[in-house]
Every structure is written in structure tokens, then in C-alpha cells.
Amino acid sequence: MSSSRRIRVATCQLDTVVGDLDGNVAAVVAALTEAESAGCDLAVFPELTLTGYPPEDLVLRPAFVEANLAALDRVAAATGRCVAVVGFVDGGDALGNAAAVCADGRVHGIVRKQLLPNYGPFDEQRYFTPGDVDQPLFVVAGVPVGVTICEDAWAPAGPIARAAAGGAHLVLSLNASPYHRGKASDRERMIATRAADASAAIVYVNLVGGQDELVFDGGSFVVDADGELVARSPQFLEHVAVTELEIRPVYRKRLVDPRHRPDAAPLPLVPVTDAVEGRPRSANVVADPLDPVAEVYAALTLATRDYVRKNGFSDVVIGLSGGVDSSLVAAIAADALGPDRVHGVLMPSRYSSDHSVADAEALAAALGIEARTIPIDEAHRAFESMLAPSFAGRGADLTEENLQSRLRGVTLMALSNKFGWLVLTTSNKSESAVGYATLYGDTAGAFSVIKDVPKLLVYELCRWRNERDGAPVIPVSVLTKPPSAELRPDQRDDQSLPPYEVLDPIIDGFVDDDRSVDELVDAGFDRAVVERIARLIVLAEYKRRQTAPGARISTKAFGKDRRLPITNRYGG
To answer: What is the pLDDT of residues 421-480, one digit of tens each?
Structure first.
């Protein structure tokens, strides 16, 4: 290629639904129509767009795979000059995580993912076989284009480098890359490095939306052959961005720089469409990234909205204690679904403080959500009376405390059954880690919004939410009073646990970083405290296995990321 060429690309950042083949096809066709109207040469969609990601054991059903292939035929039939590159499950005896290149009503070629992740929340080696190393290139608007899928981009000398060495001037990267804190900047930095090393522009398209505990942040972007950012889509929103990309000659750079010099045979070329001459340029959009706390709040909001709506619910119910955790969950739910879809329930006992009840009422009023009060003291006394003969000779202890929590869980589930509301639980990661939550009590529910949020971050998110609109919705007293479960007189969390300023870093080290007790002690923590917390984390595994899924925002959430035996005597 002797002179620069311009190619117009639509990055189609969609929120698909696993298993909803018809709905996903409709979303693809709508975005493709938008791209065609904008005069795009390419419309690029996320990984496994047609099936939704991850489809998991659905792909073990032959009928599902066949239906997904029929869905691909419908997408291909809807294409015109604009080339659609869409993710799907390739059939046959060995399934493939694949991308189809479609234009003019047909499929021109298929590329399979080469590197299959098998760590953290991923288990693609269970389902798919890797694609060949030498995948074809597709000539679109006169530009040789390589196609890669998600994990393919993470290997420095992997498929992107091979595509460039084989003659690609532009590489497409189709992704379903789950969110965790800080990942967006890491991805951009990595892709920029791949582009500069390969002397090839890269279009990175990412899925957006919530799927069980995973949340996908979108943030699709385009970098040129020097790794410079050309365009970026917003995070956590469905978005079709049209980007005008100039493909400059790179042969000289590849010849004079040994890092870029071709060391492999050219890849086969598949002609797809010719270039368009004399087309006016379009403006590129670079959306600003969210700040770290706003990013987490947006992730939790999207995850909650999608979990509720994709599972056929419209309304949610939350137990409001006047504490920081339930206050944050209520705020997120109101932002996710609208205040009229959120029902708060105050369930005071004889140990509930006046300020907690007042704080819960003030929160509900500020958010505009429904608040109803259902006292549990009468039921608590009835249970104590019922159990008194069995408990004769034994003093009150944790049993009576947990009865209150379980009565609240029963109350919320009764409202759920009667009105069809989905129960949101309010336990955070710090509590879940050490088992400071009542099984079948405050763990009861369908979705755990802040399950992966440490307690200190809960406070940060509350402060951020109060500052967002300039009018605090979470009462200041909620953020300043000592945290308490209020299950006995004058109870405080720090009577059972070390301060969260100590607890959270220990949990982060032991759980997220897999550091040993000795390593944490060497880092400056008190040995007795570390050993106690480590033991609590190990003992609470059976509780965590029975809790609701929740949004993953870290690299090591309780769930698919961390699969430890329940029966386990290793605590170091």
C-alpha cells in the first residue's frame, strides 16, 4: 500500500443477553443499520455476540449451537456493503469461539479464537478448541484486516503480532472482557503497546452489561499504528461509535526496525469490499474515562439493573437498617431501576436505636423510594417462647441475635413471594470474608449488590454518591456513627472484628493476593490478628457457597474466581 487509506469503523458496544438469540440478532441488525447509515466500511461487534457471554454449558446442547448458526445466517443476510464482524459459536465436532466476517448478504470467512483462557472466571477450554495460528486476512476498503478475539490480544508475540507479520495493517479485537477496578486503563495501555509493536492500528470492541456476577464495562476504543488513542466509547453504556481511521503506510517502519520486520510468510487474503473515494471525513469521539470510585458505582448500578431486568423482574425490596451497607444498596437500586421500583422495609427490634430508624426513614425520603415499617419484636419474642423448652438452662447468646436477622430474611422473602419483588441483599465483602453475616438471615435474597465491595470502599461510594448531585441522599450520621448490626444492646462491629482499616487490608492480602499468614505478618500486621482473620475466612467458606451472586469488581471475587474446598484444614 503506497499511500494512506481511510477506513470508517463502527464499534458496536452492545448489552446482549445470554441465550436470547432473537434479541441479540435484533440488536446486531439495528447497530449494523446505524453503521450502514453512517457510511461505515466495518461494523465490529463483541465476542460471542449472538449467544451472549459466557454461554457456559448451553454450548453443550447441539440444538443451541444450531440455533446460533441460524442466527448468524440472519445477520449475514442483513448485511450490505458495510462489513459486519460478529462473534458466535462455530459448530462441528470441535466447537470454536469464533468471529464471522459478513458482507453483501453472506459470510466471507470465519476466524476462531486461538488463546482460550482458563483462569479466574474463565473456563473456555471446557468448551472450545483453539483456532489455527495462520488465520486469513480480509481486505476491507483496500485495507488488509486481521481478526482476533479477546485473550488473543494479551500475548505479546501472539495472534496480533502474527496478523501484522502476515500483512495486516488493521487488527480487530472482539472482546467480552469482564470489569474489575483499574482494568480499563490496563487494557488501553496493553493494546497501545501491541499496536506500536506490530505497527498496526487496532480496533478494540468490548461487551457491555451485567451477566450473573460478571459485569462488562464497554469502553471500546481505537488506536493507530503508533499506539495513539484515536477514539473511545463511554463505559457502562450501549454505544455505537463511528471512527474515521487513517491507515498509513507501514512497510518502511517494518523494514528498518527489527521489532517490526516481518518474520513469517504472508497470510492468505480474502477480498471483501473496495474502498470508497471522496467520502467526507467524520469526527471521532474520545469519551472521558470515569474516575475510580465513579467507575465502581457505575459497575454496580449496571450489574444490578441487568440482573433484575434480564431475569424478568421489575421491582426490588431491601431491608433498611439505617446502616451504611443498606443505604448504599438502596441508592444503587434507585439509580439502577428508578425510585418507584425500589421498596425499603424497616424491621426494628427492641435493640434498634432511634437514630437508625430515623436514618432509614430520611434515606428513603431523600431517594424517593417506598418505606414501610414491619416490627419484628413480637415475632422474635414468639420464637424465644417457642424455643424456651429446648433452650432451658442455657443463657442467651448468638442464637437469639441471629433469630432477629433470620426473621428479617423471612419477612423480605414473604414480600417477595406476595408481590413478585426481587430481594437485594446488603452484605459487603469484608463481612462475607469473615462470616460476619447470618446465614438465611441478612444473606437471604437473589442478588448481592456489594458482595465484592470491602467495607472501606462502601464508605467511599456513599460519600461519592452524596457529592454527585450536590445534595446528599445518605444521611451524614450514617457515615459517622460506629457500624453495628444492632442485634444486642450497644453492639458495635469492632467488638467482634478489628477496625476495618486493619481488617480490609488483611482480607485483601489473604484472599485477593493469596498471601500467607507469615507474609502478612512480615508486612507489619499483628500475628494473632492475622491468624484469627485467616481462620474466620476459611471457616466461612460454607456460608459463602450458599449466598446470592453479586457484582464482581475485583480480581478475586468470592465465586468463580476463588474455588476453595469447604472441608479444608489449611489456614496458612
So the answer is: 999 999 999 999 999 888 898 899 999 999 999 999 999 999 999 999 888 899 999 999
The radius of gyration of the chain's CA atoms, rounded to the nearest angstrom, is 27
What is the C-alpha separation between 115 and 113, in angstroms, rounded?
6
Kindly report the number of other CB atoms within 10 A of residue 340's CB atom. Answer: 12
pTM over 0.85: yes
47 included as an active-site residue: yes
Residue 77 region by backbone torsions, left for phi larger than 0, else alpha for psi between -120 and 50, else beta: alpha
Looking at 40, 82, 113, 543, which residue is catalytic? 113
Q: Which of 218, 240, 209 is nearest to 310 (CA)?
A: 209
CA of 455: how far to CAs of 209, 426, 459, 462, 565, in Å? 25, 11, 7, 11, 25
- Candidates 477, 434, 441, 448; CA nearest to 324 is 477
Give the residue from 153, 130, 158, 151 showing the smallest Cα distance to 202. Answer: 153
Is residue 1 predicted with pLDDT exceeding 60? no
Domains and CATH numbers, the chain: 5-273 (3.60.110.10), 292-489 (3.40.50.620)
> What pLDDT sits at residue 487?
60
> From CA 510, how far away is CA 572, in angstroms rounded?
9
User: Please, what is the Cα angle at 213 between 209 and 217, to 5 degrees?
Assistant: 30
pLDDT of residue 172: 98
Can you say how many angstroms the Cα of residue 243 is from the centroid of all Cα atoms in its chain? 25
pLDDT at 252 (0 to 100): 53
* Residue 219 CB neighbour total at 10 angstroms: 29
- In this predicted structure, what is the pLDDT of residue 2? 45
The number of C-alpha atoms within 13 Å of 15 and in the hemisphere containing its C-beta is: 20
The question of whether 113 is a catalytic residue gets the answer yes
User: Residue 342 in contact with residue 318, Cβ under 8 Å?
Assistant: yes
| 83-90 and 96-103 strand pairing | antiparallel
Under the banding of pLDDT at 50, 70 and 90, the label for residue 523 is very high
Please answer whether residues 151 and 113 qualify as being in contact, where contact means their C-beta atoms are separated by less than 8 angstroms.
Answer: yes
**Per the residue annotation, which of 82, 150, 151, 188 is the catalytic one?**
150
Q: Which residue has the cell 482480607?
A: 507
What is the pLDDT averaged over residues 334-342? 97
3-state secondary structure at position 411: helix
**C-alpha span between 286 and 2 (Å, rounded):** 29
102 carries an active-site annotation? no
H or E, element range at 472: none
Catalytic-role residue among 12, 40, 47, 124: 47
